[in-house]
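Side project, low priority. Logging it here so it doesn't get lost.
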Amino acid sequence: QVQLAESGGGLVQPGGSLGLSCAASGFAFSVNAMAWYRQPPGKQRELVATITSGGNTNYADSVKGRFTISRDNAKSTVYLQMNSLKVEDTAVYYCNRIRPPYWGQGTQVTVSS
């Protein structure tokens, strides 16, 4: 059974940092490309970052230079390190297996003073 379990969300002040983790199970994690998406309040879900099985990464322009996606295949875990957080980064963040698509349950990130 495929499972993606996000953790690490919470409340942080603008300019702060937060790290998200997504523990995967039930499939061959190391050969799968993974992604993080987010859904701000009242808006559509949007792509944040992707990472291939080989570790190549890609980012949305809005987070480039501030967020870092990484993976540990030995732990079947994908990470999202978020620095210099802005109020507009507030969203529910979802871990995603790209193909075939599968979603985690999401974790709330709130950036507020």
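Brief comment: The mean pLDDT is 97.
Revisit when time allows.
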